[in-house]
Design brief:
alpha+beta, 25% strand, GTP binding, single chain, 7 strands, two-stranded antiparallel sheet, GTP cyclohydrolase 1, zinc, GTP Cyclohydrolase I, domain 2, 186 residues
Length: 186
């Protein structure tokens, strides 16, 4: 689905008017266009080439990239939630470039989202693309919809996980992953 810059600009202008602001005042005059360009930038990061490498086909131990920083928007309030993603997979004849794991996080997080779905989408995409022995994804995030509204207390961290294949079936593999990302006892 393509970004419609004009609709975004109209919507932001109406939003600003709706909250009692003057969209023509100096500080807000360019805001509708800035937001439209921001969403175009997000949209460009959703598409990438998920390159696989078969020359490392004999590698069959856990691959982990942890502490992948991400930003997303809660689809209920359009307020940010942000934090870290930890991803592991156990290859079955193919591996991907490590940056592709980071790009996968960006592709699914730069849209209105909920953390639970984001966790599952990343795990499902990697399972589909890599066809590995297993995938594990853990996300830790602070949600501004809790920090600056609602209960209005910052610092709460929500943790979600999605396990596929051997990470779901084998307790030792799951425990090794959690130990390596520093999350024993989850």
């Amino acid at each position: 689905m393509a970004i419609d810059k004009e609709k975004i600009k109209q919507a932001i202008r109406l939003f600003l008017e709706g909250i009692g602001e003057d969209p023509d005042r100096e500080g807000l005059k360019e805001t509708p266009d800035r937001i439209a360009r921001m969403w175009e930038e997000f949209d460009r990061q959703r598409e990438f080439n998920f390159k696989l490498f078969e020359e490392f086909g004999d590698y069959n131990e856990m691959v982990i990239v942890k502490d992948i920083r991400f930003y997303s928007l809660c689809e209920h309030h359009l307020l940010p939630f942000f934090g870290k993603v930890h991803i592991a997979y156990i290859p079955d004849k193919v591996v991907c470039g490590l940056s592709k794991l980071v790009r996968t996080v960006k592709a699914f997080s730069l849209r209105p989202q909920v953390q639970e779905r984001l966790t599952q989408q990343i795990a499902d995409f990697l399972q589909e693309q890599l066809n590995p022995k297993g995938v594990a994804v853990v996300i830790e995030a602070e949600h501004l919809c809790m920090s600056m509204r609602g209960v209005m207390t910052p610092g709460h961290i929500t943790v979600t996980s999605a396990l596929r294949g051997i990470f779901l079936k084998d307790l030792r593999t799951r425990e090794e992953f959690l130990k390596l990302i520093g999350k024993q006892g989850l």
